[in-house]
Protein 1
Amino acid sequence: MPAGKYKRTPAIRAKMSKAHKGKKLTKEHAEKIRQSNIGRKHSKESIKNMSDGRKGFKHLAESKLKISNANKGKKRTKEFIRKLKESRLGENNPNWKDGATDSNKLIRNSPQYKVWRKKCLSRDNFVCQKTGVSGGELIVHHINNFADFPELRFKPSNGITLCRKAHYEFHKIYGKKNNAHEQLLEFLNAYNTIMNQIKRQPCEIFSRVNGYLRPVNNWNDAKQQEFSDRKTFKVKK
Ligand SMILES: [Zn+2]
């Protein structure tokens, strides 16, 4: 092919993509690409394109849980955390509203708010409604969120007691805007399912093959397959 600039039409791009599918870069090649990309910045236009492409996209609650679990235990360097915090302070925070923090703080310290909180806590017996843990650091969560539903701020029916961890988890999954009752229900159900999975203990099933009761796990594959096909019949006496 003669040297020069070639336009990558969509058809050509598709061809290239197909040709490269499944191919793995060698470590050196990947490192070269990484090095050459260091310090490179996306143009405003391509940032906008990427952002537009993701608009309206929402993870399912289940995949959010998966992501959250996959990230558990991952450690970030102190330096990274410091940078992250700084990049989200005050006006740089996506939730920044002029002076809103001050007025919210005032409301949260108001007697009305404290009464509401106490009412919710005692109704829930000071038990996290998600984990069943009592006492500890309990948070009364606004089911329809505080900022978007000012008329519901002090309705006990709009509050639910959660432990700190559960509360954190909720907002990690659903964010802090436009929270609704359905989210809470979904959250409680999803969580319960996971808790049940954790609580379920592996147990050994013994059954008969050729007369003796033996752990099914020790059977050979064919016998185990046969066991899974077995049906239970009720015998009328
Ligand atoms: Zn909350």
Protein 2
Amino acid sequence: MSWFSRLCISRNDMKNNISTELFALAHKAKSIAITTHIHSDGDGMVAAFALQEILRIKGFASTIITDGEDLSRYSFLMDKAVHQPFAEGMQYELLMVLDCNSRDRLGPRAALVDAAEMLFVLDHHVPEHGVISADLQLIDPHYVSAGAMIFRLFERDIMGFEPSARKFISEAVYVTILNDTNNFSNANTRAEVFQLCACLARQGAQPHLLHQAFLQNQSPQEMLYVGHSLASIRLHLEDRVLFLHSDLALAKDLNYDPASAMSVSRYVQGVANLSALAYFQEVQQEVWKISLRSLKLNVQEIAASHGGGGHRKASGLTLKGNLQEVQDIILKELSQAIKKL
Ligand SMILES: [Mn+2]
């Protein structure tokens, strides 16, 4: 493995050189895999569909390696996708890691990094610890999504593709932006995001259809699951903290796989006058996946002190116990954090 590594921060430099260098790596490789972080999302996974199509048109076959997660949310973009769940012993000469820059965010698929002879890393997260050493590395936190980076990186190539390919890639990139801006509501929704989206719309991406397909396409069962979860809303700490939950019994009643839901927390994120909210989802018997959201408190600190993590305003963690026990733990943490305000 050549450990020549470059960190490219300049956006002009990025456009001019990296795509050429990436195709040169692809020429040398007998096999190519694309992968993204654990608990894949509508940025990393959908950016992989876009990149796979670009590579395919350029004559390079590739396989997207997943954790075997449910990809049905993206089915409207997956007609041509070639993907496989990770299995031990898998080996690809060139590995492309999207929307992720550290080994520990790859879970078991970090083995693909060790087995690869050439590595390409493309990400827009701030590098923290354990940045993967790559032959070609592009980490630019300025970008709204990994998909947006791919579009700008290959823009000249994409504009030379057939209209149907341009449309497909533009749709995928638009979805990565919907995902990472949470429908243009996060602080990363800047002028250049709209400029890029205008360009994607000119290539045939239709915002209303993509919004429907990606953000509104819930099954009636999922909406029942959401509705029952919303009915569990309770307020604590003088109405400053909102709790809601979905237990396994509910999922069983509705014959619904909770792993396929978008976090129910998105439905209560805009509730007025809260210091914080916590959504408790039972994913196995007495194992609760907890989403913390706050515009005031640093919930990343709370999550990290229980083995979780994320961002200041949005974090997650997992706790074991019955509902009362895990809610007591979180309530105590939030109460302490509020006192410190
Ligand atoms: Mn992302």
